[in-house]
Design brief:
Layout (H helix, E strand, L loop, with lengths): L6 E7 L2 E7 L3 H21 L5 H34 L1
Antiparallel strand pairs: 1-2
Length: 86
């Protein structure tokens, strides 16, 4: 068993309530939920005919795309730091 304490946080995303269980702080979970809600609303404004499932998938695709861009940037910066150390 892990000694890490799990918390339950109820959040609202695109008009639906979700209970998120995890080790992150309540404020972190609320921030993540707020960003997801914002992105869903942004995509919905640009594509008002999307049903909730397609909207959720497009939101996930956008989030993973952003993650991969940031990950690539971090890897390039780490490589540059390593190069400068040598």
């Amino acid at each position: 068993m892990s000694d890490t304490k799990k918390t339950r946080t109820t959040v609202d995303i695109y008009g639906q309530q979700y209970t998120i269980v995890g080790t992150e702080s309540t404020s972190h979970v609320r921030l993540v939920a707020s960003l997801v809600d914002d992105k869903m609303r942004e995509i919905s404004i640009m594509n008002p005919i999307l049903d909730i499932n397609k909207l959720a998938v497009l939101t996930a695709v956008n989030a993973v795309n952003d993650y991969l861009k940031v990950k690539d940037r971090v890897e390039r910066l780490e490589a540059e730091i390593q190069r400068l150390k040598e």
